[in-house]
Write a structure and sequence with these properties.
single chain; 347 residues; alpha/beta; 2-enoyl-CoA Hydratase, Chain A, domain 1; 12% strand; flat
């Protein structure tokens, strides 16, 4: 009689009664086949074949899953690339007559949606489109960088002269400081009666910790090459000479702002002693002072002024990939850099 429990020269016994742990690791289907074959001659070979085919099936399934995962990621990145390449494209057929709209919202600063890079690119696309009959700047901003605002103002004036298309500014909640710097480049400014308009001024803000450091017994060790290299360092005392220099620089930038406002508004401006002091007014007061022209919103301007109710948005915004990048690290890095900058920004 043949003993089927004996181990042959090819390997260990596969009898489930002698190797219960190995037997339990097999799939139910394989265990059933093994149990059925154990009562037949040559069952070891048949069992090995079954195990080999099962392993091959598992490898095929794993390869299929890996292939599916890779193709899914590839499709995902292709979609992101497509969105990136089509960022800022109008949602409607731009060949038909329409009113072009460009939003300027939030803080005006480099790298933001309301930056000269994004806004100027949108302006060029809107002006160059043959279907656009006028460009509307839809503004809702408290201000920001005078440099970014100046770049946008210059580009609007250049494109107006080149393409001979009117530009209108429509103010929602706020059009202050650098936002108003941009708005005065428009042919007319429309506001809501409760909008905030003005704040024609410049500021530079920071903090000084010298008194607190003295109380805590902390010594600031700053070594510079150049008398004013540590100018505006928040941990060092500010002298009168440095304060006067900063004030003269702000006064010069302020005068540049005033000149731009006067050039844009012309004789419509009803100057008062407070107009260029940094004060702001509501929309109704702004119209009375000549800081704005009329009350009206975007739909009103498209319908009654441009006479083309079809509106196409040319605003450029971050695409999905850029938003993800900012969310998962880039924004944190940018915030850390800003936190350690000792020289405050102009606004």
């Amino acid at each position: 009689m043949t003993d089927f429990k004996k181990t042959d020269s090819d390997g260990p016994s596969l009898d489930p009664t002698e190797t219960p742990d190995q037997f339990e690791t097999l799939s139910p289907r394989t265990r059933s086949a093994t149990a059925n074959l154990s009562s037949e001659p040559g069952w070891e070979r048949a069992t090995l074949e079954k195990l080999a085919f099962a392993a091959l099936d598992e490898q095929k399934a794993t390869r299929r899953w890996k292939t599916f995962t890779r193709l899914s990621w590839l499709a995902f990145f292709v979609v992101l690339l497509w969105i990136g390449l089509n960022r800022g494209a109008p949602a409607t057929d731009a060949s038909v007559p329409h009113t072009a709209v460009i939003e300027i919202k939030g803080e005006i600063t480099a790298g933001a949606d309301a930056s000269a890079e994004f806004v100027n690119a949108a302006l060029r696309a809107a002006f160059e489109d043959e279907g656009s009959k006028a460009i509307v700047l839809l503004i809702n901003s408290p201000g920001g960088s005078p440099v970014q605002a100046g770049m946008m103002n210059d580009e609007i004036l250049r494109l107006k002269a080149k393409h001979k298309k009117p530009v209108y500014a429509v103010v929602e909640e706020s059009c202050a400081s650098a936002a108003y710097y941009i708005a005065v480049s428009a042919d007319q400014i429309f506001v809501d009666k409760a909008s905030i308009v003005g704040s024609i001024g410049v500021l530079m803000d920071s903090f000084g910790f010298t008194g607190l450091m003295d109380k805590l017994g902390v010594e600031r060790r700053l070594v510079t090459a150049g008398e004013n290299k540590g100018f505006l360092d928040p941990f060092s005392a500010q002298n009168d000479k440095q304060r006067a220099f900063a004030q003269s620089m702000l006064d010069q930038i302020h005068q540049q702002f005033i000149n731009v406002v006067k050039a844009g508004r012309g004789n419509r401006l009803k100057e008062t002693p407070e107009m260029f002091t940094g004060l702001f007014w509501n929309g109704q007061q702004a119209v009375e002072l000549g800081l704005a022209d009329h009350l009206g919103n975007l739909d009103y301007v498209a319908r009654e002024v441009v006479k083309v109710e079809e509106i196409i948005d040319y605003t450029r915004r971050d695409n999905v990939a850029e938003r993800l990048a900012k969310k998962f690290g880039a924004a944190m890095g940018e915030g850390a850099m800003k936190a350690f900058q000792s020289i405050p920004a102009l606004r």
